[in-house]
Amino acid sequence: MEPRYISTRGGVEPVDFLSAVMMGLADDGGLLLPSEMPDVTQELSSWRKLDYPSLAYEVMSRFIGSAIPEADFRGLIARSYATFDVAEVVPVKQVGGVFIAELFHGPTLAFKDVALQFLGNLFEYQLARTGGRLNILGATSGDTGSAAIHGVRGKAGIDIFIMFPEGRVSPLQERQMTTVPDPNVHCIAIKGTFDDGQRTMKSVFNDIAFKHKFSLGAVNSVNWARVLAQVVYYFWASFRVTETTGASLVQVTVPTGNFGDIFAGYVAKKMGAPISRLVLATNENDILSRFFNTGVYSQGAVSPTLSPSMDIQVASNFERYLYYRLGKNPEKVREAMATFAKEKSLTVPGSDPDFAAGRGDTESTLATIAKYYREAGYILDPHTAVGVSVAEKNLREGEPMVCLATAHPAKFSAAITRALGADLAHHPTLEALKTLPTRKVLLEPTVETIENYMAEVLHL
Questions:
Q1: Out of 93, 112, 393, 440, which one is annotated catalytic?
Q2: Which one, out of 47, 153, 217, 459, has a CA that is 20 to 30 A from the CA of 340?
Q3: CATH node for 92-109+225-425
Q4: Is the pLDDT assigned to residue 351 strictly greater than 80?
Q5: What is the pLDDT of residue 143?
């Protein structure tokens, strides 16, 4: 049976994979999900021996069906991971008492490259087949923007507009976006927080007339293909560690703000990956860790931290998880999201044994960076350090702990300097950005302002 995609809110007729990718945010305001989750437990032993691109094909093809011919799809995957600077794509290293899965070997040195190199090629492939155009609108708290830009820069038939909060991303993260000279790239600094940008983006997508007229597409993790590409490295890392240690299961700790990365882990676990549970780690913006520990999902004010990509209070992918937590009942999801929109809070009774959760504040982040450099000679970026600090509190006998390393530490020189007393993390790709000219506009994060700017740029 061909994979079909449904909305968490139940207002969209089931669609195929490519329609889901091009739709991005569902037309009813919900998020798209596969109607069925494949069980691959019988495939695990043969998958363990595969290289990364081959594993990516096996995992993702379960969700794609015949939408893309096999040779074309394998070619898409090969092109996507040829841009990484290590052959294994995601190296897994034992560091101290944990295993680190390094997701930062792509063009922008962040885990988002694993999905966005693939998504950029997928968009280009589909547009070449249909002769269409795509105008991407995204919001970033730091890494998504640059990874998305580098995934589609210069690609035919695509313009990309990325909103980021002025003064709230690291200087190098901003330069990775604003120094890209390709004319199809448009960087929008907004006056406000990431949550303001994400809310504006979703509101623009919910203007259905504008969405269709402007052929809007999404690169944020609201796009199912983003999540799907991330599912692969949960299998990859758990295979590497179980092979090394002889353990049957691993735990995986994920630093997260928008719930996209850890939701990919949830999908992998549902499919049968050898994962006992997922450990969710947040910084002071702890709406998600509070939810998993109390059942209350309650929005607070955004606090700027050393891990800016996690400075988020409204996690856009949480709705996908809520769909499963509420028994795959779209009516209950609609009610819950309406309650949250009105009251900035919702409560879900019970707990979920698939998750543990904790918070790594600034003090523990700095201490963890210092400890791992002192004891193992390994520099953690501040987001990864949040995860490792929470992981250390959730170790279990006989279950190795995998920590996802989400960015190269050189992207966060201020945090590294503060933790280690000197800026010890460097990367030539980032050093080269420091003298390049930049381009951006500064706008208010309102639907009218963003829509008018896009119409002006695109002459529509």
A1: 112
A2: 217
A3: 3.40.50.1100
A4: yes
A5: 81
Spell out the SS3 assignment of the chain: CCCCEEECCCCCCCECHHHHHHHCCCCCCCCEEECCCCCCHHHHHHHCCCCHHHHHHHHHHHHHCCCCCHHHHHHHHHHHHCCCCCCCCCCEEEECCEEEEECCCCCCCECHHHHHHHHHHHHHHHHHHHCCCEEEEEECCCHHHHHHHHHHCCCCCEEEEEEEECCCCCHHHHHHHHCCCCCCEEEEEECCCHHHHHHHHHHHHCCHHHHHHCCEECCCCCCHHHHHHHHHHHHHHHHHHHHHHCCCCEEEEEECCCCHHHHHHHHHHHHCCCEEEEEEEECCCCHHHHHHHHCEEECCCCCCCCCHHHCCCCCCCHHHHHHHHCCCCHHHHHHHHHHHHHHCEEECCCCCCCEEEEECCHHHHHHHHHHHHHHHCCCCCHHHHHHHHHHCCCCECCECEEEEECECHHHHHHHHHHHHCCCCCCCHHHHHHHHCCCCCEEECCCHHHHHHHHHHHHCC
Given a cut of 90, whether residue 455 has pLDDT beyond it is yes
Question: Does the predicted TM-score (pTM) go above 0.90?
Answer: yes
Is 342 in the active site? no
Look at residue 221 and tell me whether its pLDDT is greater than 90.
no
